[in-house]
Amino acid sequence: MKSFVVEPATRPLSGQIDVPGDKSLGHRALLFSLLAKQSIRIRGLGGGADNGRTARAITQLGATVERDGDAVVVHGTGLRGMSAPAAAIDCGNSGTTIRMLCGLLAGQPFKSELFGDESLSKRPMRRVIDPLRAMGAVITGAGGGASADVVPPLTIGPIAERLRGTTHQLAIASAQVKTALVLAGLQAEGPTHITEPGPSRDHTERLLAAMGAPITASGREVTVDPDAWSAAGAALELPGGTIDVPGDPSSSAFLVAAALVAGAETVVCRGVCVNPTRTGFLDVLERMGATIAIEHQRAVGGEPVADLVIRGAAPSLRAVEIEGDVVVRAIDEVPILAAVAARAKGVTIVRDAEELRVKESDRIATTVAMLRAFGVEAEARPDGLVVAGAPDRPLTPGRVDSASDHRIAMAGSVLALAASGPSRIEDVGNVATSFPSFVSVLSSLGVTLREE
Question: What CA–CA distance (Å, rounded) separates 423 from 425?
Fold first, then answer.
């Protein structure tokens, strides 16, 4: 297994960096381009393995994906032009890929099979399968007994008739489930209404509306009405034919945190998506006392984008409570927020984060184990965790088992900057799923980090 060896920071970090293209937007750009009746040019697509899985999946369904310089060009099939995959679709480690494909394939007249790696094969799928079944989808998977969740591998279809438009009241706010139901709704007879109990990422609504899909959104409600769509096409069309993918805020969170932990002369993360459904981590850091300038705000691909700038010595941070809607907007960033909390004064408490139990690892357990590896007092709770910050003393050099979870590996690497000696972060291969340039980018800021 690959490991990172991270040396303590000996000087403030400095540099200007471009983070990878946003992974969530990359998945959507690829999948929605499959449904287009024109060729779509995608610029800024991240090079992570997860987006690569989605790209390969759409080729198995009949699309052509070509590299053209720094862009990817997708020649799609339209919603009714997809072909049955000749082999099962490997979703790798990507929960987004498999859940969105469930919705896309639910209304197709052919059979599909979806599977993934060992981690994905443990991820719960009932939350997306049950509402799709209510629309008439035929989906089976492993497990699924009275008390068990459904897990991959999954078999989808075929169906003999169109799906039925249905009203869905989601128990948990989830952009993945919402998108799956929107994609199924595009193929259904009658409107599909989706209501969430809290905010979730709205990238799907923004991009599909720009591509002419029959979708409307108001607050936490989304409606898809395919009967209002052109009967001739059932295909999307993007004026200008180009999707620009801005920088990934989840990736930038690790770099912002590194600058806060180690201090910064000036660190600039350029072109980061600052969609308000994705900036919960910035809100939490501001409450902790961090100063992060949001400069050069503009729009890219229908999304708000800005440069994130951190200047000055490591700030004096204070503990906070993280709960409610902000957890939904920062769910992927909880491990790195916990690492920052280890350097804050007081006790930070995370609540309402049960969703962390069913990520690439049990992220409540693995985050607590990561913190304890550095001598930080931390406690797991059923819906979150407690972190006792110790800002005035160096941390113990850590030996962290990331459990093959990329966010634990990167959070541990950042916290290692405050240790009293070199730390080892083990099982880091899956960092390539989201941030393959993580080592080179951190190194460019002045961090001493090597891969073994």
Answer: 7
pTM across the whole model: 0.91
- CATH assignment of 3-21+246-451, among 3.40.50.2300, 3.50.50.60, 3.65.10.10, 3.40.50.970: 3.65.10.10
Calculated CA dihedral for residues 179, 187, 27, 51, nearest 10 degrees: 130
Instruction: Compute the 3-state secondary structure of the chain and give helix, strand, coil in percent, each to the nearest 5.
Output: 35, 30, 40
The residues annotated with a catalytic role in the active site are 332
Instruction: Fold for 23-227, please state it.
Output: UDP-n-acetylglucosamine1-carboxyvinyl-transferase; Chain (3.65.10)
| Topology alike, domains 3-21+246-451 and 23-227 | yes
Q: What is the pLDDT of residues 329-352, one digit of tens each?
A: 999 999 999 999 999 999 999 999
| Domains of the chain by residue range | 3-21+246-451, 23-227
What does the block give as tokens for 55?
């790209």
SS3 142: strand
Reported as type and span, the H/E element at residue 336 is helix 334-341
Evaluate the CA torsion angle 219, 385, 263, 429 in order and state its sign: negative
The string of DSSP codes covering 184-214 is HHTTEES-EEEE-SS----HHHHHHHHTT-S
Backbone φ and ψ for 422, nearest 5 degrees, come out as -65, 145
Report d(CA 87, CA 62) in Å as an integer.
12
Asked whether the beta carbons of 51 and 45 are under 8 A apart, the reply is yes
* DSSP 8-class letter at 104: H
Ranges of H-type helices in 35-121: 49-60, 95-106
3-state secondary structure of 63: coil
**Among 448, 442, 444, 445, which residue's Cα sits nearest to residue 266?**
445
- Which residues, at least 6 apart from 190, have a Cβ–Cβ distance to it below 8 Å? 164, 165, 227
Of 228, 185, 237, nearest to 207 (Cα)?
237
Per the CB < 8 A criterion, the answer to whether 272 and 306 are in contact is yes
**In this structure, how many other beta carbons lie within 10 angstroms of the beta carbon of residue 347?**
15
Q: What is the pLDDT of residues 176-230, one digit of tens each?
A: 999 999 999 999 999 999 999 988 999 999 999 999 899 999 989 999 999 867 5
Residues with Cβ within 8 Å of residue 68, at least 6 apart in sequence: 41
